[in-house]
Amino acid sequence: MSLWLEKAIKDITSAKILFRANDATQWHQVLFFCQQAVEKSMKGFLTWHAVKFRWTHDLVELGKQCTDIDGAIENDVSPIKDLTEYAWEFRYPGEDEEPKKEEAKNGICRAEKFVSTILGRLPLEAHPEPARKAVRSRFYFFLFNWCRKK
What we know:
- The protein is mainly α and 150 residues long.
- The protein has helices at residues 3-20, 27-48, 59-69, 74-77, 101-120, 129-136, 140-143, 146-149.
- It has one domain: Nucleotidyltransferases  domain 2 (Four Helix Bundle (Hemerythrin (Met), subunit A), Up-down Bundle).
- Helix 1 (3-20) runs antiparallel to helix 2 (27-48), helix 2 (27-48) packs parallel to helix 3 (59-69) and helix 2 runs parallel beside helix 5 (101-120).
- Residues 136-142 have low confidence and may be disordered.
């Protein structure tokens, strides 16, 4: 089991909790957690395959390493590359325009889809316990179906 993947699922959960609070001052935090979920799922995937990676938030770089292992995920990596900027863009006061609610929701949907894809490309023993329970109980889609409900 990968602790990276466990953290990725916790970050998706945190993004959803913040989104449900419906606080416009927190959309940037929602997007930060989305970026973190994707990054950590990539690092979990790389760790499972015993591939070393540079300590970076760059989803393009990490995504390239992931697609080198499994080319089938290449189409899944492309839509999430722009989430990289949320690792730092809104963390400090500045002139950046705050993201909108729709941008935050879209970030959750893309991150959730990507984390789900990564889990689907790994054997069950690599999954964190909440995901394994969901698979065993045949309710896996409840773990990652938030965007279809909204």
